[in-house]
Amino acid sequence: MNDGAPPITAELVVFVILAAGTIGGALMTITRRNPVTAVMSLVATFFALAGIYATINAHFVAILQILVYAGAIMVLFIFVVMILNRDEVQLFSFKGILTRVIGVVAAGYVSYLGAWVVWDQRAMPNPTGALLRGGLTDPPVGYGTVAGVGSSLFREFVFPFEAISLLLLVAIVGGLIVSRSQHQTDMAEGRARHIRDIQAQSHPEIKLLPDGRPADDDGHAAAGHH
Amino acid sequence: MEYSLRLIPLLPFAGAALLFFFGRALRRDWAHIFATLAIAGSCLASAYAFFSALPEAREAGGLHDLVWTWMSSDSLKLDLGLRMDALSGVMCLIITFIGTLIHVYSIGYMSHEKDYARFFSYLNLFCGAMLVLVLGDSLPVLFIGWEGVGLCSYLLIGFWYQDKANADAGKKAFITNRIGDFGFLMGMFLLFEATGSLNIPDILALAQAKSPTLLMTIWSQPKAFWAALFLFIGATGKSAQVPLYVWLPDAMAGPTPVSALIHAATMVTAGVYMVARMGALYLLSPPAMAIVTLVGAFTALFAAIIGFAQNDFKKVLAYSTVSQLGFMFVGVGTSSFGTGIFHLLTHAFFKAGLFLCAGSVMHAMSGSGDITKMGGLRKLVPWTHGVFLVCLLAIIGAPLFSGFFSKDSIISAALATEIYGPDLAWVGKLAGVMLFVAALGTAFYMSRLYFLVFSGPCRADEETRRHIHESPPEMVAPLVLLAVGAALSGYLGFPGGLFDGTSLHIPNLLAEWLEPSVGHELHVSHLVEGGTMGASSVLAFAGLGLAWVFYGGGYREPVKKFAAAVPGVVSLVRDKFRVDELYGFLIIRPIRALSRGLFLVVDRILIDRILVGFPVMVVDVFGRLARSFQPGDAQRYVAVFAIGIAAVFYMITRPPKPEEIKVKVDHFAVDADAGQGLGGQDLRYFFDFDGDGVFDRSGPSPTAHFSYEGNGTYNINVVVQDPKWGTIRNLKTKVTVR
Amino acid sequence: MPTFNYLILSFILFLIGTTGVILRRNALIVLMSIELQLNAGNLAFLAFARALGDQKGNVFTFFVIALAAAEAAVGLAILVGIFRTRQTVNLDEVTLMKR
């Protein structure tokens, strides 16, 4: 409560421009009828966001944002939009409109509260205020660079990293299966059945349970030798 | 004296239960064997008790069997107790003996019946209930028997329930009885309130001692009067007196053995028994006795007149029963309880005999009871004719037959009694005269019945005539026994005083026997006694002669001329004075209208629309409300999610609680109290006392003290802050300092 | 730049994203709004990481981006599947619930 208006630096100007771009792009995204327009504005939003990430010394993340988010995810969106390109006749959904509007108002209230808390606390002498006022000093060396993030990633966070790669694998396979056509599904199941039959023929002494697993003589699943 | 009396009603109950549950599985013979054995066993048990133990015991209140203590609380002690004293002993014997005879008769009469076991089951049940009634030691036990016989009456009248008319007759009997039972209950309640006990010996003892509680007046009559009156209302229902007699003629729809047992010998006499039993109570209230006497006399006369024009065999007998019951009530109404019971006894024999003869005749006539189509059966069913003749002579009061003695003792008691006091002395005389006329009527219509059925040429058609046959022995044997009883039972109650002091003196056995229970027999002078005997004999033969003139050998000229002359009168009498129609108009129609009204208003509107519809509507509304929470719409879920988060955020960060500042002014010093926050909130208070924007006091305490320099009006501004979230509240007030 | 600037921007972006999720009928737009929300979260992570000088925020953001990619892929695949059977991506018409 003691500061006057903050000094106008170039940093501030850049921030304001980029923030305006972000917010403008976001607003455009949710308010366009034409999905293509919406996708394009989202791409623009992401570019602006990448710029903001850069000002905040998160260089690696900024590049990632452009490469992955704007480059891969948005391209995916564009593909799908092209397949399903239809103009909306009615912009907003009116089903249960009351609940939805109240929900939006509530979300707005939450944002307002958050912003107000942040605004209020920044002047406080407590640690939160310190946190909120932070960011003015230079970060440690190597902060936000590829090397810096990489070393953190492969040392402390190697396990989540591997887990994420597994997740991506699952996502790929899942995406493939979900988007199969009926014909492709039938073909795949046919191939699986075929393999099971071959197994049964080549090793007739191994009985198969109904789901294809090999069984012992008394009907339990085999211990695993072949 | 303790005695195991419970066997007496228990045997018939056991028989009834056995036949009710297993009857269909049993062979036919076994059904009637069990039933008859049960009632015969009961007869033997009663006889054993009566002859062996009762003679000594009857002075001391009779034999007593406490079966079970029902409830025992401070105000009410109820036992299921049976007591056989002189009066109930006689009743037991009558019930079981005549019951046995009728069981035997039914073996033959109901031999073609499909529901054989059910019939005997009900018959046994009835006997059991009637025995409970007469053996009951307290009014509730009596009432159990009372209701039980009413139920059995309904079951047996409507035995062939597949025919709606029979079922309706059963219903009518039960409902009319029920009305009377209501009166009985009122009487019971009144007695309980007045005496504190429902035990019959206790009540009678209090009555004999002229207890003041019973003599307390309500509406200018003692409670004893009201109790006696209400009990009598019950008796009019059960014993078919005016105005509740209307069920008895309709009850003839049931099988004839039923009519004989229930509607001649036993159930309908329950009312007479009850009045005799509660004799001491009635003696406390002469007006009540007068009412009993007058109702009985009127009923006797009224029913006799209706009997003149009935064309159904059993209906004639039904009205005859009503009339004879009237005689009995006059008997007990004149305080000569013994004579009423005497007539009950003789009537049981000859009326049962008459009814069983009716059954026999109807059996012969292929089930028809229409006397206009009978005639000349004297030679065709000789045994039946013989029995009927004996019973006829008994009922009209021909000398030396039983009815002669019993009827006359009633009439002479009515003429001679002084129980009503000087104001109502005319009651007895009037009743006596009415009974004379009724006796004449009885002779007339019974003789009419005899002549139309048994004398002259047969008016039946060819088909029926070919089938006329005498009944099988198992039906004739009881008939003969009953005839014997009808002839000789009169000698049990030979009127004392006659042939007194001579070698021909026959003691009045019955009166002597009953004395411990019903008190001294009324003393009737020789003159009255003899005069009555003579007059009634003359009237009996006069009635017989008149009937012969009109109906001897079939419908004769005089009756045809009479019918042609006053057809209106004849049809009125034949239609039983249209009493049923009157009841229908006065009572049934308003009740029906009321029911209909209630149905439309209460049922349709109140219950269906409001009481049912309203909860339905509420459930619907709440259902919709509940459903709206689960629309399956993910976006709405997100919205609700956001609402929830907003609510949580608000709860966490809301401003501190204090609403206002309390200021205490003391000259220049001021104490301000801003109030505590919610529990657990660490708040900081900033006080600005002089309105200059600078905080003069601050700290965690809600109170602050300040002294002003000069006087004037100051604005006090207090800022309450929650340092954790930074939420603040501003409180302002003004203060004036001098 | 003081942190709180970025935080307020994050809140605003999140609000816009939530509005899009709640109010739009087109499933594609809804998915894009979800991406917006995720980005708002990313921004908050980065702002605090900068203020504390700690790399962990950046690493987390990396993971969030990877996750968003996976989620977008699968979500779009499902969407395509729905479109094949229902011929529409209008959320109002796709529902199976009564009324």
Counting copies of identical and different chains, the oligomeric state is heterotrimer
Class of chain C in CATH? Mainly Alpha
Assign the CATH topology of chain C: Helix Hairpins
What is the β-strand count of chain C?
0
Give the C-level CATH assignment of the domain at 1-91 in chain A: Mainly Alpha
Strand content of chain A: under 5%
What is the strand arrangement across the widest sheet of chain A?
1-2
For the record, give the distance between the C-alpha atoms at the N and C termini of chain A, rounded to a whole number: 77 Å
Helix content of chain C: over 70%
For the record, the count of structural domains of chain C works out to 1
Number of helices of chain A: 8
Under the CATH scheme, the architecture of the domain at 1-91 in chain A is: Up-down Bundle
CATH superfamily membership of the domain at 1-91 in chain A, which one? Answer: NADH-ubiquinone/plastoquinone oxidoreductase chain 6, subunit NuoJ
Question: Would you kindly provide a brief summary of this structure?
Answer:
With 226 residues, chain A is mostly helical.
Polypeptide structure, described:
- The complex is a heterotrimer of chains A (226), B (738) and C (99).
- Chain A has 226 residues and is mainly α.
- Among the domains of chain A are: 91 residues, Up-down Bundle (Four Helix Bundle (Hemerythrin (Met), subunit A)), CATH 1.20.120; 51 residues, no CATH class.
- In chain A, 67% of the residues lie in helices and 2% in strands.
- Chain A has 8 helices and 2 strands, in the order ααααααααββ.
- Chain A has a two-stranded antiparallel ribbon with strand order 1-2.
- In chain A, a hairpin with a 5-residue loop joins strand 1 and strand 2.
- The N and C termini of chain A lie far apart (77 Å).
- In chain A, 25% of the residues are buried.
- The C terminus of chain A is likely disordered.
- Chain B has a 4-stranded antiparallel β-sheet with strand order 8-7-10-11, with no helix packed on it. Chain B has a 3-stranded antiparallel β-sheet with strand order 5-6-9, with no helix packed on it. In chain B, strands 1-2 form a two-stranded antiparallel sheet.
- The radius of gyration of chain B is 42 Å and the shape is elongated.
- Chain B has 4 domains: 137 residues; 135 residues, no CATH class; 290 residues, no CATH class; 76 residues, Sandwich (Immunoglobulin-like), CATH 2.60.40.10.
- With 738 residues, chain B is an alpha+beta fold.
- Chain B contains 28 helices and 11 strands.
- Chain C is mainly alpha-helical and 99 residues long.
- Chain C has one domain: Helix Hairpins, CATH 1.10.287.3510.
- Chain C has 4 helices and no strands.
- Chain C starts with a helix and ends in a 5-residue tail after the last helix.
- The mean pLDDT of chain C is 88.
- Chains A and C meet through helix 1, helix 2, helix 3, helix 4 and helix 5 of A and helix 1, helix 2 and helix 3 of C.
